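[Q] Does anyone have a clean structure-token version of this?
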Amino acid sequence: MRLRDVRRQDLQKLIGMMLCRGYSVQAAKHVKMVASAIYTHAQQQGWFSGPNLAKLVKLPEIVRADAHALSLEQLAKLLSLLPRTIRIMVFLAAITSMNIVEICGSKYSEREL
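[A] Here you go.
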């Protein structure tokens, strides 16, 4: 299908089908963003002069799950089941609220322990 033949309803239907098939709203948002990037790139290259129809696609609101913190007993049990390297990463994440990217990018010399 050529870009000029795509209608807003086609994109909305694609997003709707994703959601009906169990994809998350976040995944549908990613598809919408890719479609928008395609339109933007085509416009910048002079290949397409119409509107960016992806910007007109409606998405439902993202519902965030409630955060759940482990008790100290649950954390201790979990840590006892993990290999050493993973155990250290999980322990750091639990006590510092760091995410995996922050932990992997950290150097021991950067931390004041």
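[Q] Thanks! Anything notable?
[A] Residues 4 and 50 are 7 Å apart (CA to CA).
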